[in-house]
Amino acid sequence: MRRFLLFINHLNAIKVLSVKSGLTHLGKYVMLMGRVLSQPDRWRMFLKQYVTEMYQLGYNSIGIVLIISFFIGAVICLQIKLNIQSPWMPRMVVGYTTREIMLLEFSSSIMCLILAGKVGSNIASEIGTMRITQQIDALDIMGVNSANYLILPKIVGLMTIMPILVTLSVAAGVLGAYATSLMGTTTVPELDEGFRYQFNQWFFWCGMIKAVVYAFIITSVSAYKGYTVEGGSVEVGKSSTDAVVTSSILVLFSDIFLTNMLT
Q1: How many angstroms separate the CA atoms of 154 and 68, rounded?
Q2: Beta carbons within 8 Å of 155's beta carbon, 6+ residues apart
Q3: Residue 170 and residue 126: Cα distance in Å, rounded?
């Protein structure tokens, strides 16, 4: 009994420490975002970094977005055809369901989770390396707002390019669904009918809103993990992993509320 009580007290102590650690990180994150979301000192330098980050974070991700979305669109179409095929079911349901899945969830939420692994780890490792090599300290000594200079272009750049990536993802998924017609799974007229049936433009804009919110979460959380890293190269690797895990969890958590609010 005594050992059991000691075990319970130990668990309670861990819970208290976890809550305190979470609140500490939240406070540091809010304070960092206060520095980040301030007016840039030099707009010319900011615009230059903004274009660079759009290219590095967004343009370099187009390939993986198109490839994954194409095959996922094809797989969704095949699975729907195989699992709901029935004489009582209209044939256009395959295209209709594929369109709704791509618009509402995959291209906006799941694709952002995939990009969190690529973009988030890149941001955390880049800023973390600058932290341990004292480049950020050098910027602070020169009177530069290092948080604003390093992080704000990444946030704005990914928030700008992410809706374009989502649009390309939807288009690639639709092309993947059309590609299944070559295998005889369905026909192009059936897919056309399903894709056009009761199309709601608001669902497309829901995906755009989600994409912008997720872009902010991925970049800000990853930048925070890299900016606050302490130690050496090992800690940079850990911060990169923490950035991917934390941003992915927050994306899934916010997806529940955004889906409930927007649809």
Answers
A1: 24
A2: 36, 215, 216, 219, 220, 223
A3: 30
Does residue 123 contact residue 219 with C-beta atoms inside 8 Å? yes
CA-nearest of 263, 99, 102, 69 to 196 is 99
Coil, strand or helix: which one is 73? helix
| Whether this model's pTM surpasses 0.90 | no
DSSP 119: I
* Residue owning tokens 């194409």: 70
Q: Are 107 and 169 in contact (CB under 8 A)?
A: yes
What are the tens digits of pLDDT across the range 17-65? 345 566 777 788 888 888 888 888 888 888 999 999 988 888 888 888 8
CA of residue 260 relative to chain centroid, distance: 18
**The one-letter amino acid at 63:** G
